[in-house]
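Late entry, evening session. Most of the bench is empty. Finally got around to the prediction I had been postponing all week. Sequence below, unchanged from the version circulated by S.P.
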Amino acid sequence: MELSQLKHFKVTSRHKNLTRAAEELHLSQPALSISISKLEKELGAALFDRGRGGLQLTSVGSSFLFWCNEALNAIDSGVREVRDLCDTGGGLVRVAVSEAVFIKHLTRDFLKTHSKASLQCFLMTNEQMRSAIYDSTVDFVISRGPVTGPDIYWSPVYEDYLTALMSVENPLARKPSLLMEELASSFFLVGDLKQDMHSFIYQQCHAAGFTPKIRYEGHDSDVATLLLVLENTVMLTCNSTNLAVEAEIPGVSDVIAVPISDANVQPLGLGFRSNRYQSVAVMEFYDMAQRFYSALPT
């Protein structure tokens, strides 16, 4: 059994599709299929059911995936510890964040002070984060609401609340706070998400008894500037996001964040797998994020 076969099985089990797995692994589909078949032959059991609906793990495959992940995680932990002991000063940091978690200023400051390190940031749901922690796709997460599971340590760092971001010229901007129903006649800006994710904005609006009228939905590095030119338009954000953006782009005085008094937002927290070795670079970025959120005003 070769290490590459374990990696091939792990990636294939995540995609449940040979073509997509082969693309990620930079292999041809026949080469990947042969690798999986050799692994199954050596184990003496089928790892996948190969039906019209795609690949599905068998009960044996699900059991073997757990130990496959444990083996690969152990090797990865060993490699990271050796590199730290050799004081290479670098390393890869992989972090997953929830929707509307803004850490651009943290990544900027970290990369400026860690010239040999590299960083990857992923947008995920909490369930995706849980899976990513177990298969070591990410080192830690910054999530809204807890990410739970055996050996996962998650700790809240900020009690967040929802705000409506709008131009200071908007009549609603004169109010000290708003109810969600007061936004029913407004237009909304929505940031871009992955195809398998749904913005929390829809849930908040539906809970208040209306469907949001979306004026713009998509990717824009400075989408909030649209608030200055579009009348009766708001953008729902969390207070931690507003404070983080201010840390990155100070002095934005024409846009105001009005608190929403009847919206429920889960606390912001950080989580990682407690029984896995974390490199010096990972822990330094983790500590940087924890200090930032713990120091935010409520």
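Two things to note before I forget:
The radius of gyration is 22 Å.
The longest strand covers residues 90-97.
Will write this up properly tomorrow.
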